[in-house]
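Contributing new records

If you add data, match the layout below exactly. Sequence lines come first and carry their own label; structure lines follow with theirs. Keep one chain per record. Anything else will be rejected by the validation script.
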Amino acid sequence: MQIDFIHALSANLLSPAVLFFALGITAALIKSDLKFPEALYVTLTIYLLLALGFKGGVAINEAGIRVVILPALAALLLGALIPLWTYPLLRFGGKLRPVDAAAIAAHYGSVSAVTFITATNYLKGINEPYENYATAFLAVMESPAIIVGVLLGKMTLQREDSVFNGSFKSLLREAVFGRSVFLLLGALLVGALCGKTGMEKVEPFFVTPFQGVLALFLLEMGMVAGQRLGDLKKVGPLLVAFGILLPLFHGFLGVLLGKYVCLSLGGATLMGVLASSASYIAAPAAMRLSLPEANPALYLTPSLAITFHFNITIGIPVYYAWARYFLN
């Protein structure tokens, strides 16, 4: 088992995706003038979300909704529940302001599409099959935690006699129709309607260039993450430990959940990866709009500078090792 884990860890660290991420961090640390235009970053994000959602929808079409519904509902429930225990942990254990605890809880209940993509790339690299419809788990886990986290923050602000801007209806709209969720769910629906026939028509665009686009995106993300490494001093040792230990606990829960809803070894690994990941795209955007009182350094730095680094380098092989232990 130890030899298998070391091999899996090496395969992940030496994959093009992780190496390009490391290259981006290096560029930031040496203060290179390398910089992506904002329009290119947005384009890469849109491409990855569309490709991911479309392929997942095609897989749902082939597998059938009856096969997908149970694990998808389990994933949705887990995403909604994570903020409910993360919030009191940060509020009372970490002594954070309630609004900051709520914002961080929303990030850790939501998911990272890039971490998920990196995990699927890792599984392909070690020839471990997984359910192609696993993208559906990504789509359904992103919004619930954001809604729960923002509601926790709003209720706190109301108790403190702060001004409540907006309503539950507007909050729900922000969470469900935000760019990342809308693209994932929309592409998932298109793929489910088109099926394999539709995939054949767009395969040269959505499948063949995917790995190259992912490498470019992770190069950009590496530069962003590298610029935030200095923020570790601001969040302190508590959130550094939080950014590693809580994802490990959530990854463990996700793997067990994958087992009990009868996913394959690869599928259980992906469920663990999603549960362990933290959003740094959809959740920060929602927090800026809905909880402007929360401190961005506190909710963005742990998810991006700590958890993201940990998961795509060490975490993914750990969750795979746990899945092997429980499912074999």
